[in-house]
Amino acid sequence: MRYQISGKQIDIGESLQTHVKEQLGVAVSKYAERPTDAHVIFSKSASEFVCETIVHLSTGLTTQAKARAHEIYAAFDQSCEKIEKQLRRYKRRLKDHHRDRSQPVELSGASSYILASESDDADSEPESLQPMIVAEMETQIPSLSVGEAVMQMELAGAPVLIFRNEGNNGLNVVYRRDDGNIGWIDP
Q: Which residues constitute the signal peptide according to the record (predicted)?
């Protein structure tokens, strides 16, 4: 597994990097046969350290967790526990489905945009009807079954996931509803 360990505005020492590689390697190897890479990003927010961990699996699924603590090692340990819990749930669901994916998840490219929020002055008229684009990024749209899409959305902790449905090859959306249930849009 490839590791990318970095810090935003803080120095990451060799001992922390070694700790991350050992602990994350043990946690991931319990539940995933072929993890491809892991990104661990440390930052500081006021008096707390923040650790964001992202692990990519060979099946195309991604797990991510974020934790905060007053100690940098404690922040990583909490994040690692969340990743381990997500992988345990993922493996349990795979066993429940009694279906192994023989081919890796197919990904197709798409553009992702971040739009500027509404201005605070609600009485003013917008200058144009076109939204202001703050950022534009490339993203991947996976080709999954509906169950795998729900699992991927939960593993990523995302409120919504766009995916290509393997059943009909159409673009579908799964999302978390306000009542806690999962919604599925199949146009």
A: none
Has residue 94 got a pLDDT over 70? no
Whether the Cβ atoms of residue 141 and residue 110 lie closer than 8 Å to each other: yes
Same domain, 85 and 125: no
**CB-based contact 51:66 (threshold 8 Å):** yes
CATH of the domain at 166: 3.30.505.50
Q: Residue 179 — φ and ψ, nearest 5°?
A: -85, 0
| pLDDT tens sequence across 36-84 | 889 999 999 889 999 999 988 877 778 889 999 999 999 999 999 999 8
Same domain, 71 and 119: no
Locate tokens 């195309």: which residue? 60
- Domain span including residue 55: 2-97
Q: What pTM, to 2 d.p., does this model score? A: 0.59
Return the sign of the alpha-carbon dihedral for residues 98, 152, 34, 112.
positive
- Smallest CA-to-CA distance from 57 within 38, 40, 35 is with 35
